[in-house]
Amino acid sequence: MSELRKDPIVGRWVIIATERGKRPSDWANEPNIKGGGLCPFCPGNEDKTPPEIMAIRPLSDQRDVPGWEIRVVPNKFPALQIEGNLSPKGDGIYDILNGIGAHEVIIETPNHASDLADLSEKNFHDILLIFRNRTLDLKKDPRFKYILIFKNHGAAAGASLEHTHSQLIATPIVPKRVVEELEGSKRFYDFKERCIYCDIIRQEKKSKSRVVSDSNSYIVIEPFAPRFPFETWVLPQQHYSHFEDMPDHMYSELVKVLKDTLVRINKSLGYPPYNFILHTSPVQEPALPEYHWHFEIIPKLSKIAGFEWGSGFYINPTPPESAAQYLREVKL
């Protein structure tokens, strides 16, 4: 079983997951199969994955067979395992937990060659509803404090398989990066009695220089202090702290915005590898007036090197104002 270990200096938890060492290291070193063969996510290879948790099958209720449009399975090489107890323990000054959590894969389409941005709005909408429904299901387990949904697209972004898919990891602690956002938001709210993300949206709509797109329900921006070139945020214009608690129409409108944003990134940057991350509130918390869920999309255009690792500073050669203009001007 994996372990969660806490760094006693900065309070950061890490997962020691020895089983992950057995996964494919890089799909680029494997045969590039287009529609079958060795890909465990392609139709006909359902026996190559753990038994499915759920699937969308228009014509059949039979499990683990072809005929699906979207399929959710446990990760074959999970970072955390769902069975067992946390069993907190100490080793001198060090804190250790059993590696309890959930690690799921959302296989977004049976088509091996498709990208997420290529999917129909209906399929994209179904994926977002699966994100919501899996979150609502897993949050019933009181062991889970946070659910992170993310996508690694391309080998340079950490994908170990080429077939387009997203992942979900439920953890028994709130990740440090999210804690930093929550604490910063709470400090701002305690001082001004307003959500800082709502203030950012108001200021960006007024200045317009970092806005990529602006719809009735969502705004897409290049953040003021981006860590990476073309780092892009997607935020609901109305305040929602939990992604899974929005009314149905918000997911329908989100499809159009996300699809438009990914197409702009693909066309302007030549289909780059990217990471796609959903930051939302901890699942056991009530609605929070100070925090605002959002997607972060990070094209892999630069590398983190010694200065960034050693200092915590990021060096970004592309001003967000230039990136926003470039994305706005893409001909769709």
Strand sequence of the main sheet, in spatial order? 3-4-7-9-8-13-14-12-11-10
Give me the CATH architecture of the largest domain, please. Answer: 2-Layer Sandwich
- Bin the strand percentage: 15-25%
- Rg over CA atoms, rounded to whole Å, is 20 Å
Overall geometric form: globular
CATH topology value of the largest domain: HIT family, subunit A
Separation of the first and last Cα atoms: 48 Å
Structural class of the helices, strands and pairings? alpha+beta
Number of domains: 2
Count of extended strands: 14
H-E order:
EEEEEEEHEEHHEEEHEEHH
The average pLDDT value, as a whole number, equals 93
What is the helix tally? 6
The helix content, as a percent range, equals 25-40%
CATH domain class of the largest domain: Alpha Beta
Largest β-sheet summary: 10 strands, antiparallel
Under CATH, the homologous superfamily of the largest domain reads: HIT-like
Task: Point out poorly predicted stretches.
Answer: 25-36
Structure report:
The chain is of the alpha+beta class. It folds into 2 domains: 3-173, HIT-like (HIT family, subunit A); 177-328, HIT-like (HIT family, subunit A), CATH 3.30.428. Helices cover 25% and strands 21% of the residues. The protein has helices spanning 121-138, 176-192, 196-207, 248-269, 306-311, 320-328, and strands at residues 3-6, 13-16, 54-56, 70-74, 89-91, 94-98, 102-107, 146-153, 165-171, 211-214, 218-221, 232-236, 274-279, 294-299. The strands form 2 sheets. It has a 10-stranded antiparallel β-sheet with strand order 3-4-7-9-8-13-14-12-11-10, sandwiched between helices. Helix 1 packs across helix 4. The model is unreliable at 25-36 (pLDDT under 50).
